[in-house]
C-alpha cells in the first residue's frame, strides 16, 4: 500500500485572515453553529482527518498598544468563539472527522482540561484532539490576573507538568474499570480506579478523574513548536505537529529535525505526523488562479495584516516606518513565523506595508494554480520528505474548503496518495497511530531527549 | 392569560441517583452524545423551558475517606461527563430548549467562563444558561492545587466578584459593535468595544472579551442557594433558582423569602423564577405508581445513598451507627439538604440505613400517583405560592422524562397552566424574563440588600 497523506483543516472560529471576510464568497457565520457544521460536513465528504481550531484568549493589542487595528480590520484576533462548544457542535453532525481545539496550559487547570477532552473523546466516539499551546501574549496574561506573562521557560516547564498530570488523569480509570453489573451491584470496580496524588511544582492534583479512560487512550495531541523548547515539547508529547514554512527546504529540515528528536525521546518517528500549513488558491487556469490570488490580496488592509503579525511575533510593528523593510529584531513570539517572514521579505524585497498585506493574505507560491498544479505541489512536498500531510488554511471560509475538497482531493485520491474511505473509526486510527497503553505518559515524562 | 408554570429537567451526565442505573428501563448511555440528544428531543417535544446539568469536579470521598462507595454503587458522583460539550451536542438537535451547565466560580477564571457561555449562547441562538456553584467538597479542592477548600464566606465573596467580572465582559461589546462593513472596511467599531480593566481582590482582568455580547444579554443565571449567603447571592444574581423541599410549607416559606430579598436588591420579584425539585413516579393507577416507587426503592443500595448524602452534607456518615437515627450534627455542606433530611427522618422515623435508601431513591410523597394526581400536586404547589414551576428529577433516565412528557405534560397543558407552544426564541423569552440592558451587572453589583 502506498503511504497516504493526512489532511487537517485549519478553521478560525472568527473572521480569519484580514480581508477574507470582505470577499463576496465569505459567509459571516462565525456566531452560528450551522456555519461550523456545514464546514464539518464538507470536510468529512472530503475525507479529511481532522478540523483544527487555533485559539487566543484576548483581543490582541500588540500593534500600538490598542485593540483598534484588530477590531476595525476584522483581523485574526478580533473575534474568537470558544472552540470547545464549536467542536462539540460539529461532532453532532459527523461520524469520522477528527476535531481539534486549542487550549492553553498557562491559563487552565489540568483537571478541567483533561476532563473536557476525555468527555469530548467519549461523546464523539474517539475523535477529539487537543492542540496544546502555552500562550505568549501580554494581553492574554492581563485577562488572567497577571501583570505580565510568565517567561518562555516557565511556560514550557508548566506545560510539561500539565501534560504529565493530564496523562495521569486519563489513566486514572483502567480501560476495563466500568463494569455495570446490575445484580451485584458493581458499577465501576474500585480497584481499577486510582487516585493520582500528583504533587509537583505547579500542580497538586489528587484525582481520580470523574470520566473513564478516553476511547483513544489519550485524545490526539497536537503542537506547533518552532522554538527549541517547543520542538522538544512537541517531540515528546505530540501525535501531530502543525508548522509553517515558506519553502520546501525549510519544511524538509524541520521535518528531519523533529523526527530525530522524537527518536531521542524513545519514540517511533512514524508516530508523529508533521502537517505543514498551506494556503492554496485554486483556479480553472493558472492565470485565473493568480488573478484570484491578486483579488484576495487586494482586499487585505495592510494594517490588519501587520496587526496580526505584530502579535504573532510579539513585536510592536507600529513603531517602524511603513515603507521600509522590517529590520532585524529580537523576536520573543513565534520564532518560526519570524524566520518565514524574513525569508519572504528578503526573497521578495517587501516593505513593511507590503509585508502586512502579504502576511494578511499570504499564500505560498507553490500552491497557486490549477487543481492539478496544487496537487503536484502537495505531492512533491509529501514525497520529498517535507510533510506527512498538510494543514489546509483557506483565504476565505467556507468556500475555500469546498473548492479544495471538490477539486484537489479527488486528484490526490486518483494518484493513490490520499484515502477514499476512512480507515478506522477513531481519529487515531485514521492517522495510523497506536492507541497509547495506560501508563504511556509515564514513559514519556521520564524520557530524556 | 393564566400564569404559566415553567419546567426544567435536571439531568445527570452520569448514572444519577444510586439504583437508577440498575432499573431495566435505564439506558447506560452516559458517554454517548445520542443519549443526551434523545433526551433533548423528548424535552423539547414536552415544551420544557430547559435542561439543567448539575456538576462536581471530583469523585467524592466523603464517606469513609474513600471513593469506593461512589464507584461501586454508581452513586451520583461516580462518573460525570463535562456538561459543557454535552449541552453543545444537545443544542445541535433542538431549536427551543434552554440548556444549562454548572460551572464553579471557585476553580475557574471569569474570562474563560464568560467566554464559554457567551459562545454557547451565540451558537445555540440564545438558549444558554449557567448554573453557578461555589463548590464545597474537599475532594474538589484537592484536584485544584488546594490542601483544603476556601471557607464559605471566601467562596461567596469570590463568586460575587466573579459575576461582576463576567457581567463586565459580557457588556464589553456594545450590542451594535459588530458592523461588518465590507467597503470601508469596518469589521467592528473600536469605539463600541471596551476594555474592562477590572482590578479586584480575586481577579484582575483587562478585557474586552473576544466574543460579542450574547443574544440574551447575559446567559440565564441559575443558582441553588440554601444558606443565608447563598440566598443573598441568588437574590442578587439569579434568573432561576433551583431548590429542594420535602413539603409545600417549606417551599412556600423559601419562595416568599427569596422574592422579598430580591426586592431589597431592587429587583422585580417576577424576574426570579423559583423551581423546586420534584421526583414524580407516575403509574396507571395510584397503587401501581406506589408499587413502582417501591420497586425503584428496592434497587437502591443504602450505602450508595448514604455516600452521596455524606458529600451533600459534607459529613462523614460512615462514622455513625447504621441502625440508629442520624444525630443532630453541624453541617458545613448544603444546609437545605440537611433540613430536608432531618424533616424526612423525623416524620418517617428512619434509621441511617433507611435514610440512605430513601435519599438515594427519594421521591416526595405528594408526587407519586397517576398522571392526574401528579398534575394535581404540581398545580397545588404552583397556585399556592410555593413555586413558579418545577425542576424535574427522575428516578431513571431517560424513561422518567418520557413518561412525564407523555402523561403529565398534556394534563398541565389542558388545565391551561403550561405552554403548548414556545412563546419566544430565546430561553429568556420563554421564561418571561427581560433581556438585561448593557450595564445591568453594575446596578446589581452595587445594590445593597
From TrEMBL, chains A, B:
GO-annotated molecular function: monooxygenase activity
Keywords, in A-Z order: Flavoprotein, FMN, Monooxygenase, Oxidoreductase
Transmembrane segments: none
SUPFAM superfamilies reported in the protein's UniProt record: Bacterial luciferase-like (SSF51679)
Pfam family name, one: Bac_luciferase
Official protein name in the record: Dibenzothiophene-5,5-dioxide monooxygenase
Domain Luciferase-like: 31-386
InterPro entries, A to Z: Diverse_substr_monoxygenases, Luciferase-like_dom, Luciferase-like_sf, NTA_MOA
Source organism of this protein record: Rhodococcus rhodochrous J3
Family from the record: Belongs to the NtaA/SnaA/DszA monooxygenase family.
Species classification: Bacteria, Bacillati, Actinomycetota, Actinomycetes, Mycobacteriales
Amino acid at each position: 500500500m502506498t503511504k497516504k497523506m493526512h489532511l487537517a483543516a485549519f478553521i478560525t472560529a472568527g473572521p480569519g485572515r484580514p480581508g477574507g471576510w470582505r470577499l463576496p464568497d465569505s459567509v459571516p457565520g462565525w456566531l452560528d453553529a450551522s456555519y461550523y457544521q456545514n464546514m464539518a460536513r464538507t470536510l468529512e465528504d472530503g475525507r479529511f482527518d481532522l478540523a483544527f481550531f487555533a485559539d487566543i484568549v484576548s483581543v490582541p493589542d500588540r500593534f500600538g498598544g490598542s485593540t483598534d487595528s484588530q477590531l476595525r480590520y476584522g483581523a485574526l484576533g478580533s473575534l474568537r468563539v470558544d472552540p470547545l462548544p464549536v467542536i462539540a457542535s460539529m461532532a453532532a453532525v459527523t461520524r469520522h472527522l477528527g476535531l481539534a481545539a486549542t487550549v492553553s496550559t498557562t491559563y487552565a487547570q489540568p483537571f478541567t482540561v483533561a476532563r473536557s477532552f476525555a468527555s469530548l473523546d467519549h461523546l464523539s466516539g474517539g475523535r477529539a484532539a487537543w492542540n496544546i499551546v502555552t500562550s505568549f501574549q501580554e494581553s492574554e496574561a492581563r485577562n488572567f490576573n497577571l501583570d505580565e506573562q510568565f517567561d518562555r521557560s516557565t511556560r514550557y516547564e508548566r506545560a510539561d507538568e500539565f501534560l504529565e498530570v493530564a496523562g495521569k488523569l486519563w489513566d486514572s480509570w483502567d480501560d476495563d474499570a466500568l463494569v455495570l453489573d446490575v445484580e451485584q451491584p458493581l458499577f465501576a470496580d474500585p480497584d481499577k480506579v486510582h487516585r493520582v496524588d500528583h504533587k509537583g511544582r505547579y500542580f497538586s492534583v489528587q484525582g481520580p478523574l470523574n470520566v473513564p479512560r478516553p476511547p483513544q487512550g489519550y485524545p490526539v495531541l497536537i503542537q506547533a513548536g518552532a522554538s527549541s523548547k517547543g520542538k522538544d515539547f512537541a517531540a515528546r508529547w505530540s501525535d501531530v505537529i502543525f508548522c509553517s514554512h515558506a519553502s520546501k527546504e525549510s519544511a524538509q529540515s524541520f521535518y528531519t529535525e523533529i523526527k530525530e528528536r522524537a527518536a531521542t525521546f524513545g519514540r517511533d518517528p512514524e508516530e508523529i505526523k508533521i502537517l505543514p500549513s498551506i494556503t492554496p488558491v485554486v483556479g480553472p487556469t493558472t492565470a485565473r488562479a493568480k488573478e484570484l490570488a491578486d483579488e484576495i490580496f487586494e482586499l487585505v488592509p495592510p494594517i490588519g495584516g501587520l496587526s496580526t503579525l505584530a502579535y504573532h511575533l510579539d513585536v510592536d510593528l507600529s513603531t517602524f516606518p511603513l515603507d521600509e523593510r522590517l529590520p532585524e529584531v529580537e523576536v520573543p513570539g513565534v520564532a518560526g513565523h519570524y524566520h518565514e517572514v524574513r525569508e519572504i521579505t528578503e526573497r521578495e524585497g517587501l516593505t513593511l506595508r507590503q509585508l502586512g498585506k502579504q502576511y494578511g493574505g499570504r499564500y505560498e507560491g507553490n500552491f497557486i494554480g490549477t487543481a492539478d498544479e496544487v496537487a503536484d505541489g502537495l505531492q512533491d512536498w509529501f514525497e520529498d520528505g517535507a510533510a506527512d500531510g498538510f494543514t489546509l488554511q483557506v483565504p476565505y471560509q467556507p468556500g475555500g474548503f469546498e473548492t479544495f475538497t471538490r477539486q484537489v482531493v479527488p486528484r490526490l485520491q486518483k494518484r493513490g496518495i490520499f484515502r477514499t474511505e476512512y480507515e478506522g473509526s477513531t481519529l487515531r486510527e485514521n492517522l495510523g497511530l497506536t492507541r497509547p497503553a495506560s501508563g504511556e505518559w509515564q514513559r514519556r515524562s521520564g524520557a530524556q531527549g
